[in-house]
Amino acid sequence: MDIRPALESDLPELLALESQSFHSDRISRRSFRRWLRHHDRVFLLAVDQGQALGYALVTLRRGTRLARLYSLAVAPQSRGRGVAGALLKAVEQGARDAGALYLRLEVASDNQPAINLYRKLGYQQFGCYEDYYEDHGSALRMEKCIRPYAPGGDSRTLPWLAQTTAFTCGPAALMMAMAGLPGGYRPSPEDEIQLWREATTVFMTSGHGGCHPLGLALAAHRRGFASEAWINIEGPLFLEGVRDENKKRVMRIAHRQFVEQCAAARIPVRHADIDQGQLTERFQAGANILILISTYRLDNMKAPHWVVLSGFDESCLYVHDPDLGDTHPRQAADAQRSALDCQHLPIARDSFNAMSRFGSSRLRAVVIVEAGPGTAPTPAPAT
């Protein structure tokens, strides 16, 4: 048995393997062709004397240290020969060589042979998707650290939520942060839109306005939480992405109102950089933290985007990303993500420094949310 990279000329064999292995949720010819040409993946084929035995496809999340086993298939007549295990070990090495720290996967909850294989190779279950497949079957969520790092500081319960529009990453991130603190806050679609209405900058580039850090801090304060904002520049934000002078005028007014309202509410606003040490210290002390990033390293879009810190270790910071990709019309179906791809994303610390600055102004913005008066924060254990 030889394991080699899959080639475009292997497309007929890949389609045959797919047809023999799966009754539903099959990868289409178009999707196979796309993945064969894609850069952010590890795609391997097992062959024996010219006959295709099986394939494994792993996708890599740009800008992060996370990989995902997208599909693994072995021809029925080749099962029992160790093909699946050999392919899995090979794609793990490929993902490791690409810099990934973790490999995640979904497997049908009734596919006991596959579950046994994954457990034998060191994968651990950390969740379950109900009604995941076309036949309404559920899927177990499994993960393996493929590099010898032990994540820490993320043992608190921090829920993950998806944004429901292309412009509500800020509200979704804030709902995660508030729901992960004492106080009994319950997220809802209605509050997602209400939070956006309270925190929006009104305009941003050519689309709907995004959320201002001071607006998010105010929204948390109104819901009974203690909040604090760190912004490394003074003055109105995001103006560089807007050409229309009247829009800029409105954004300056909105910024001035946010500043005045924060002062009236006695919300601390610090015009300084906050470093990774300070972020992790506040996280360990019980705060949940929203961080503004540029999506350039994730999708080449250079858009401002809010995420939530979910943990850290010596090599990475981990974040919950509310963006599944399906709210963006230009996002190809094959590039859309599962919830598994968006939780506890491992981002290397050196990459994080660059990712957490936006635009030519090098804007860095953080909103820290803590339990309000009368509630006791629950600190994460020291690492």
Explain this structure.
With 383 residues, the protein is an alpha+beta fold. The protein has two domains: 2-145, Aminopeptidase (3-Layer(aba) Sandwich); 169-370, Alpha-Beta Complex (Cathepsin B, Chain A), CATH 3.90.70. Helix content is 30%, strand content 25%. The protein contains eleven helices and 16 strands. It has a seven-stranded mixed sheet. It has a seven-stranded mixed sheet with strand order 11-10-16-12-13-14-15, sandwiched between helices. Strands 8-9 form a two-stranded antiparallel ribbon. Strand 2 (41-48) and strand 3 form a beta hairpin. The longest helix is centred in the middle third of the chain and has 20 residues, at 245-264. Residues 328-335 and 376-383 have low confidence and may be disordered.
Q: What keyword list fits this structure?
A:
383 residues, alpha+beta, Aminopeptidase, 2 domains, seven-stranded mixed sheet, 11 helices, 25% strand, disordered C terminus
